[in-house]
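PROTOCOL LOG
Step 1. Enter all chains and additional molecules of the complex.
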Amino acid sequence: MIDVSLLQTAAAEAVPVDYWSTVFVFVLATFIGLGVIRRVSRLLYTPLMSLTNAISAIAVVGSLVVAGADYPRVIRILGAVALFASMTNIVSGFLITDRMLKMFKKQ
Amino acid sequence: MTHAVAQLAAVVATALFIFSLHWMNDPKTARHGVVAGVTGMLVAVLATWIQPEIVHHGWVVLAIVAGFIVGVPLSQVPLTAVPQRTALSHSFGGLAAGLVGTAEYFLGLTEHPAQLTAFRMSAIVAEVILGFLTFTGSLMAAGKLQEVKWIPQRPVTYPGQNVVNIGVLLIAVALGVLVVVHPTAAWAGGAFYGIVGLAVLFGVLLIIPIGGADMPTVISILNSYAGLSAVAMGFVLGNKLLVTAGALDGSSGLILSIIMCRAMNRSFTNVLFGAFGTVQKAQAIGEQKAWKQETVEGAAQLLEQASRVVVIPGYGMAVAQAQHKVRELYDQLTKRGVTVQFAIHPVAGRMPGHMNVLLAEANIPYTALVEMEEINPEMPQCDVALVIGANDVVNPAARYAKGSPIYGMPIIDADKAKTVLAIKRSKNPGFAGIDNELYVQDNTWMLFGDAKAVVGDLVKQLAGGGGLH
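Step 2. Run joint prediction.
Step 3. Record the structure below.
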């Protein structure tokens, strides 16, 4: 799951990563996304956008590896900034989504 | 062992994210969606953090704490500022993708050149271009929405603009192809910086010709780009969770962009390369008719004698901060047995769904908010249409005036109501009088003044006046 390939030795590098299965996942996930999003209540498009913002900040797991693994310092600085940016999106995205959703009342 | 945990966590997180979006289909269940999303995120982050290759925990903690310090205040902005917060967060998403892509390239270049296969390099180049153009483009959009002084609010256009924009993007892509083919050449590092620079520049160039009315579409398109840059990051890292979550975000942005474009009868290319707002020349209507002005007393009487009132709010209502007064008006009228509904145009406000959130904040029940397609067939039965701070979305010229920039845009049929009351800030007939013929219709009565003040006066009139006159 984590970018294991980076940590492998030169011998292991020859093993091809299965990109096609990732392409497969991408296509299926897009169709699921289109299906699910199409049914989202039109009232909630603004919170939907802040929620998907927060969810796509799952990039945090990529940033976490770059910031925390035993890489050269410059690389880790880039990773730490990316981690900070993703974390900001997660925190503000989920909090503001909930804050807005609380306002939608029936009566 | 920990690797298996990470795989399992990714599967669980994916399922939770899908549920999270699924629960957004109804305001009643929507808050479960947040719980599911947060849980999925926690599972994914913890499972990554416990991996043995993470050794610099101090760095991780520091970045996470900084994210909280900035993220918490950002979540407390007033709801009128939600569009710029959203744009800012697309920008952060793009930045994260761009930086990770850059890090992966130089890591490969210095330590594992064999890993820079054509496929992986293509993913890195896509990630960096998408990431950095989303970063600066969204930053510009956020600046325009926040009305930051040094970013021009008006669309900035110049001859040959589209040629320049597309040229910049093409050069970036061409450099990208070179780097994909020769990732370890002596010049490749320099070319890579060139790609980053051009993507940063392209993001700025893309947004400067865009005006306020197009922001809902632009934010949606940038949302899609932010999602796609996360997908590209997933390809670079071989991480399927990133690909899935990015695809969900990307498809959400895509659907919202399509809805916004349809609501304005425009295409993607027209929004991005059409520079709306600069060519808007007022269409002269044959003869200029005069306004008919109504007094607050008269308007209040019209409203309380109606059995069905449809309020059509526009961004002007939010600018005047009139939502809470509108809520008081809603209370006064419903107390008298008047049915009050709010007709919401898809592009009302500065981002998709913005108007709904602004009205919900003012405690207006969401059951009173009605979409354009649902309310339009019922407009002839509506006694009073009350237009507050809306203009283009009720302009009948959209139906027939071929030369008009809003021609073909679906509108709320306010003109078909028995009586129209329109609150307008500017009294200048040379400006809006020609622009929008709704205001000079036989059954339209104007109320001039700041939306908040006028609605406040209406409320006072209704509260003070008691029952029927």
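Step 4. Note key features.
Chain B touches chain A through 121 residues (CB under 8 Å).
Residues 102 and 128 of chain B are 7 Å apart (CA to CA).
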